[in-house]
Amino acid sequence: MSRGTLPALLLAAGQSSRMQGGHKLLLPWKGRSLLRHAFEVLHSGACDPVITILGAEAERLRRELPPQAHVLVNENHAAGMASSIVLGIKHIPAGSGGAVIALADMPFVSPQLVQRLCALFFANRAEKIIVPEHAGRRGNPVVFPQRFFDELLTLQGDQGARRVITAHSREVALCPVDDATVFADIDTREAYEQALRPGSTGE
Asked: What is the distance between the alpha carbons of residues 189 and 21, in angstroms, rounded to a whole number?
């Protein structure tokens, strides 16, 4: 790991049950699929490696990624998001110092935001949990120092990493964001169509 560079876990194992007509991560976005877009955002944001965790329809989704991409298949993905986080944490390279945890269905997250989060992480000596915030709400992606990895490995169900953030509120550094990009996700056809409208940022 070099200063300014962190590994990332890209969580993409969900079943996309609320999206009618196919898996949401295969929907087109700016000339590529939502999954490929999310991967490239992290890669362009100086994350290395980008470890993508697939689950439902893993074979189809794998074809959306570069051949050299680091891909894990979560056979237990139906148990919830925590199982993907646990699997990913176990495969982060030793000595990484921390990791970005990102969701694949948030297309408005930019490489610049990822870079800001990583820069704030290193500015805090790789000791704080870095969380983006807009209008009093906290969003994603989140950067976790390595010292919280053992606790992340205890997560269960569909709670995600919020439990760890809440338990260590004094260890959180907030990164202000000007719009709703940090919590705008694509779960339904309506949300996708709204996101495609010119000028949309998910608000």
From this structure: 9
